[in-house]
Amino acid sequence: MQITLNKQQEEFIAAQLAQGNFSHPDEVVNAAFKLLEKLQTEYQDWLTETRTQVNLPPFSGSGEKANNV
Questions:
Q1: Mean pLDDT split into 10-residue runs, the chain, 69 residues
Q2: Which pTM was predicted?
Q3: CA distance 9 to 12
Q4: Which letter, b or e, does each residue of 37-63 get, where b requires 16 or more Cβ atoms within 10 Å of its Cβ?
């Protein structure tokens, strides 16, 4: 897989390397993906908790709407 970065992303990675936060561009990208995964997991956990609290059925992802309670 090949990924194209925009100028701002390249500059951010270069700054992270220059500051010594990472030693290789791959490390910056890996950290970004780990953070994205964590945010997605936390959001899904929050969504599940919220739906449980308001007694909505779990979202099936099929586009169906929950019945109003």
A1: 95 98 96 97 93 76 60
A2: 0.66
A3: 5
A4: eeeeeeeeeeeeeeeeeeeeeeeeeee
